[in-house]
Every structure is written in C-alpha cells, then in structure tokens.
Automatic annotation (TrEMBL):
Name of protein: DUF87 domain-containing protein
Organism of this sequence: Erythrobacter ramosus
InterPro entries per UniProt: AAA+_ATPase (IPR003593), HerA-like (IPR008571), HerA_central (IPR002789), P-loop_NTPase (IPR027417)
Composition bias, Pro residues: 332-342
Pfam families linked: DUF87
Length: 500
C-alpha cells in the first residue's frame, strides 16, 4: 500500500503528492479566503487517503457529510447528543478506529465550539491502548482557536483553546495528526498555527494574512505577492510531507460534493411582479402560525428517557397504621372531608416566570434556558410546542423586564412601544420603560447589567448609546455625575441612574 496520496499537479503538470506517514508526524495548515477552494482541497485529501488511515472531521457547516455515501464515514450530529454522550462517542471512535464526520450545523456558534472542544478533548484523553493513527481535520479553525477573545464566554474560549492546542502540540504522540483550515491566518491563534510543519496557502488579499503566510513559507515581500494572484483551486505548498521548496499545486477533481449552494448563475423565474407577490404572500398568516416541527427529530437512541422513567414510578404506598388492641370501641363515622379546590393548571407564562426567578437566569445562554423551559413544561403537562426559541426569548425578556406589573391601558401602550425592539436589548429597555410608566426610579447600571446578562460596565454604556441612537431613550449627563434617562413618547417623567 502506497503511503503517498495524489492531491493535484504543479505548473509543469507533474503530479504533486503528500507523504501520508510524514503528514501524520508533522501536521498541516491550510489557509485561503472564502472561495479559494479550501474545502475542495480538504475533500480531495480526505478522498485520496480514505481507507488508508482513520479520519475524524470537525465540520461546522455540514459540508463533508457526503463522504458517508462514498466512503462509509459515520455522521455524528452534534445537536442530537448530550455533552456526556459526545465524550463517550469520541472514546468509541478511537477504540473502534471509525472514520467519522462530526457535523455541527444545527447548533449555535458557541454550542458548536463547546461540542467540538469536548469531542477533541475526549479523543486526546483516550486510553493508551487506543492511540491509533488518525487524521483530525478541523474546518474553519479560527472559530475553535481564535487569536483574540470574541463574543464567546471566557470558559468556552479556554476550553476550545486547550483542545486545539493539545491536538496540534501534543497530539502526535497519541497518534492524532491535526489538519486545520482557516480563512484568516490573523484570526487563528499563533500557538496553534505554529505547530504545523506543512502548509498549503491559497488566495488571500489582506496584507496582514499575506505577510503571515509569507513568513510561514519563508518568502520575502515580493514573493508573497504570488499569494494574491493565485486562482481558485491553486495553492502554494511547503513542508516535509509535500516539498522542501514552495511548489504551486492545482488541486485535482473530487468524487463527492458539498451541500452548499452553487456559485454559478441560474436563470431567474419568469413570474411577473404580481405573480411573484402572490407566491410570497399566499397563506402567509397560516405559515406564521404553523406550529409543526420544522426539523425532523433525530433517530431514536437506546438511551433511557430519565424524565419518562421517573414519571413511570408508581407513588409510594404507605402501610396502614395498625390499630391498638385496646381501642376496640366502635366509633361514629367521621364526616367526609370537603374536596380540596383544584389547583389552576400551569401555563407557559408561569413556567417562564419560574425560570426568571431562578438565580443567575439572565446570565445563562438562551438555548440552555429554552431547554430548561421545555423540560419544565413536559414535567408540568404544559403545552409548549407552539413556542419556538425566538418567542421564548421575547417572553423571558418581558418577564424579567417587569411587563407583568402593568395593567389595563398602560399595558397596551407599553406593548405597542416594545413591538419593534430587538430581543437582545428588550429586557433592559422594558425595565426602564416600566419604571417611567410607574413613576419609579430608573434601574441603576448594576440592575441593567443583570438584565442584559453582562458584568461589564462598558457594555452597559454601549447598550445605552445604542438605545439612544435608535431613539428609544434620551440620556442627559448631569454635573453631579448622574445620568438622567427619559423614555420618549410617555408623559414627562424622568429617572436617574448613577454613571459608572
């Protein structure tokens, strides 16, 4: 069995190969702007070495699931499993040497990052007897190893950086060969990129990315201009598994395709304006009110439904209290106790209210809150199928913002004012609006931070600036260091909150 795989041809139409055994020991970095052919290159590499080495693909966009049809890869849907199950699956992947694609496209970005980090960490922590050679391909690696802190939490960033660093720095002794692909070298953590000894650089235009690529390839500034002139599907390759000198590679064809939309032109539909408007608006109200499940449920798994098992347990039957032997005198029958009044059935709003009152609720991700909401609804027998994540976020924001404190005409007036406010800023804006309507002091910055789910004073200042730019509030600075906030559209009433 040959240990060299064909990835394409050079400018002289000579075959360019990658030494697979050397690649397992020295790792690979692929860089290219969107549309440069980066995913095509990864697919070519995976197809050519399929059957020769185990492959594990971290796929945030679901592009590589088609490998399952042609090469027998197992597709693992990250959204269908719990964190504990993801870790257990990774252990079994190493044990049985299965080639898999972990697809994350059904998850939000931060959940994608956490799922991939848990999976990679479990691969790395496998027992020594399972340290078989495997290629671990991470597409869009700048998401999982960011050079700077972004919108993700500090805990998630530490978790994912640790997983990616272990893969690229210490994975070789455990048989893991990292192949990381990124659109922007400047956005990829340097300690992750620096551990690769092989490079395939595609087209890039930004100077900062071009300079980093030239540094990795050992090229001067003038030579680096070649990177800007590369065509789609062309890469500059360098490294012990590819070539000792930079070589231009035209990537060869592939046998499978991605699920992304095509980039070619298609003829537009021939419907005129009225016909197209009818297509867009036909039965629109019915479509909006449709409560059917939009995404097919995952295949059933043998795991036990804990909630169902708990509900199936019969109530504990207490033994009857024994009657003392001395008490043998018959007594008159006691009058029947009046029936207890039936407790009113809980509603979805009641469940949201319970969540809003729980400690630290506003600092939890919306997806985690929504999962908790769905579980509580099932436990209390509350119908919640008609409530999706977007509607739940709005219900939760209204609850913590104090909307339930309003009654009558005030409630209707506030309802109209918040109709077009974005979900992520609704809670703090609503709290200020309710305070002004009820003639109460404005919430201070600490309370606004809690409602916004942040502990950063600078974020609250940016929030107030954003609300003011959108005409939702008016902020006036006082000489005493206090900030006066007024909500337009209501009777004159001012509230103050101390400046940071």
């Amino acid at each position: 069995m040959s240990a060299h795989i064909d990835i394409g041809q050079d400018s002289g139409r000579q075959k360019v190969t990658i030494d697979l055994e050397e690649l397992l020991a020295t790792r690979l970095l692929v860089q290219g702007n969107s549309g440069s052919g980066k995913s095509h290159l990864l697919r070519r590499l995976l197809e050519e070495c399929a059957g020769q080495v185990q492959q594990v693909v971290i796929d945030p966009e679901g592009d590589f699931v088609t490998l399952a049809d042609a090469f027998g890869h197992v597709v693992i849907d990250g959204a269908a499993y719990s964190p504990r199950e993801i870790e257990a699956l990774a252990g079994r992947v190493r044990q049985h040497r299965a080639s898999v694609v972990l697809t994350l496209d059904e998850l939000e970005v931060e959940q994608q990052i956490r799922c991939a980090a848990l999976f990679l960490t479990a691969l790395f922590d496998a027992p020594r007897e399972h340290w078989y050679p495997a290629l671990v391909v991470v597409d869009e690696a700048q998401m999982f190893a960011p050079a700077a802190a972004g919108e993700m939490s500090d805990e998630t960033r530490r978790l994912t950086l640790s997983a990616m660093t272990n893969l690229m720095c210490r994975g070789r002794k455990r048989g893991l060969a990292g192949i990381v692909a990124t659109q922007r070298l400047a956005k990829l953590a340097k300690n992750v990129a620096a551990e690769a000894s092989n490079f395939l650089m595609g087209r890039t235009f930004l100077d900062i990315d071009m300079q980093r690529a030239a540094d990795l390839l050992g090229m001067d500034r003038r030579q680096a201009e070649r990177i800007r002139d590369l065509q789609r599907g062309q890469f500059l390759g360098l490294g012990p598994a590819i070539s000792r000198r930079p070589v231009a590679v035209n990537v060869g064809p592939v046998r499978t395709g991605g699920r992304s939309g095509g980039g070619g032109l298609l003829p537009l539909p021939e419907a005129d304006g009225d016909a197209m408007e009818a297509l867009l608006t036909d039965r629109l109200a019915e479509a909006v009110s449709d409560t059917g499940i939009r995404r097919p449920p995952p295949a059933p798994r043998p795991a036990v439904d804990i909630e169902q098992a708990l509900r199936a347990v019969p109530p504990l039957q207490l033994a009857p209290k024994p009657v003392p032997l001395t008490d043998v005198t018959p007594s008159a029958p006691k009058p029947a106790a009046p029936p207890e009044p039936a407790m009113p059935a809980a509603s979805a709003e009641d469940v949201v209210r319970e969540l809003a009152l729980s400690e630290g609720a506003t600092f939890r991700p919306a997806t985690a809150l929504f999962r908790d909401f769905a579980i509580r609804c099932r436990q209390q027998g509350v119908a919640s199928a008609q409530i999706d994540l977007a509607r739940f976020r709005r219900m939760f924001a209204r609850e913590i913002g104090g909307f339930s404190r309003l009654e009558g005409a005030l409630r209707d007036r506030v309802e109209a004012m918040i109709a077009g406010v974005d979900d992520d800023v609704l809670a703090p804006y609503l709290a200020m609006l309710v305070a002004e309507v009820l003639r109460e002091p404005m919430p201070d910055e600490e309370e606004l931070a809690r409602l916004y789910g942040s502990s950063s004073p600078s974020r609250i200042r940016r929030l107030l600036d954003h609300l003011e730019r959108n005409g939702l509030i008016v902020v006036r600075e006082e000489f005493g260091g206090e900030r006066v906030i007024t909500v337009p559209g209501l009777p004159d009433c001012e509230g103050t909150t101390k400046a940071a």
